[in-house]
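Blackboard transcription, Thursday session:
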Amino acid sequence: MVVKNPNPYNENSPEICGDCGSILNVLDQHRGEVICSICGLVITSKIVDQGPEWRAFDSEQREKRTRVGAPMTFTIHDRGLSTIIDWKNRDFAGHEIPAKLRSQIYRLRRWQSRIRVSDATERNLTFALSELDRMASVLTLPKSLRETAAKIYRSAVKSHLIRGRSIEGIAAAALYCACRMLKIPRTLQEIADAARVDKKEIGRSYRFVVFRLNLSSNPTKPIDYISRFISELSLSNNVQKKATEIVRLAEKKGLTSGRGPTGVAAASIYVASILFGERRTQRDIARVSQVTEVTVRNRFKELISKLDLDIPLKRK
DNA sequence: AAGACGAAAGTGGTTGA
DNA sequence: TCAACAACTTTCGTCTT
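(Written on the board underneath:)
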């Protein structure tokens, strides 16, 4: 879903596109990215939604749901609802706490933290969620996605899927899963780079989690990769539209089935970039889409032969 | 010199007996 | 459980710009 005039995010200080200098942006809430409406450059992909996590449809609901304190979150092991005793030796008014009471406060603090993270399960959860958060910020994924990933991880724990598997593996799998569910696909390779676990392990855990939790996830489509690759190659909006169009055509002709989605996306972008005279080398496209030049070439050949696109071929 | 092309051999995952 | 298989990768030599 694409929404114009993003609120309250940049009303007062609009972002300016570094590429074409335009001020008008489009917020793609679905992907959590701000995209320049003129040239398609992704300006930022780190949007934090500062609104409440609930919606109220009438004043009664608003009454019920309004509460004091930080919003509930799945990314903290106790959902952010517990009390934390500050480590500063100040009282509520900011005065120093007398030395006499210090040791008492110190003991209270210790007990509080013992209670907060009481058993092994909670300790694991704490660790897993911080790991989840670390990976998500390495990959600059939006907060909503972290919540989803945390939710998946929690249900995995609940269904006793962790036993015998590594916490990091399941956490990475949950993240990968969330990416696919929210249509912000990252490749397994990208997740593996951010995680401390290898690709194989994440894949195994992913399949296991999906199977056991009955998560329906349709395979990723080339279209979902296009906007990201386009902006990484700093290509124009026209190219993006054309590439999307080509992918649609390719899908219709059955050129996508069995093929890696990244490869198809890469070749479509390659074709589109040539058509608009913004040619990028196969090597560059291969790099951002994480396939080899050979794959780009093979998909490219299939596209031009099956879709009879009139490409101004330089050579014969 | 860089980019494009294609052949050949190797890899990891799926499928069907 | 194993072999066959398609897609993809790696590597490398040749041709084009």
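Lecturer's comment: The two ends of chain A are 43 Å apart (CA to CA).
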